[in-house]
Request: fold
Amino acid sequence: MNAAADPRWREAGEVRIGIVGLGTILGQYLDTFDRAAGARVVAVADLDPVRTAEVAARTGARPLTAAELMADGEVDVVLNLTVPAAHAEIAQAAVAAGKPVYGEKPLTATGEQAHQLLGAAESTGVRLGGAPDTVLGTGVQTARAVIDAGTIGTPVAANATFAAPGHERWHPNPDFYYLPGGGPLMAWARTT
Ligand SMILES: NC(=O)c1ccc[n+]([C@@H]2O[C@H](COP(=O)([O-])OP(=O)(O)OC[C@H]3O[C@@H](n4cnc5c(N)ncnc54)[C@H](O)[C@@H]3O)[C@@H](O)[C@H]2O)c1
Reply:
């Protein structure tokens, strides 16, 4: 997502954000926006209307439904913080509305949904962005640079291990982590 590429943002001097999904991760984004000049949350939506009203009151944004937010002329970009099972639906709605969308991980719950979403974005020219931005950090970028430079030859296999005591130890509503597409590893239907 490149705010500078859109003339509406250059004129306004700010990016007007509409957030769909107002759960646990929301606070980290609001803290960041508080420190980011030019980022303003103008609309919020959640399946839970009480939560929507509470966040709207706290942020000064307007409480809307997701459908209303997609159609809202003040919203420049959609931030998709819903659960993984809803990522594709919300992102596709944003793309259909012509609004750039940045989503929490995973991009979608299945590989097929991801290919459909990327196809829709490409054909309409709408920009997509997604977490985690940690892939742009020193560790992953150094590993990539070493591989690209041929320093370790041609990799023939990779091994990764993830261990955690369980999201129920800290998350108030962890069910989505155990549903298809909600975990850290995904079985992709395509390998290219
Ligand atoms: N919590 C974290 O620390 C964390 C960290 C990294 C990534 N994430 C990712 O962020 C996303 C959200 O995580 P969370 O912990 O905030 O989840 P959460 O369950 O606390 O909140 C999700 C919110 O989305 C709403 N929602 C679900 N479907 C919706 C729909 N169709 N329309 C509107 N609202 C809808 C739910 O009502 C809920 O309020 C997940 O994809 C997760 O993988 C979370």
